[in-house]
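Form 7-S
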Amino acid sequence: MRRRPQLVTKDSPSDDNVFFNKEFIYGVDARYNAGYGLWQLAFGSTGEADMPTGE
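Output:
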């Protein structure tokens, strides 16, 4: 976690969105590490060996 989530509000009467649109905006500001990957390389395992024994 690069930065912990922090609540961000725009609900003050002096904010432009409250003055012009009469709406309150709430959000979360945070930074995480994420990336794209190939779905073809996804692998799931139950932890048990399912390989044939060659009988």
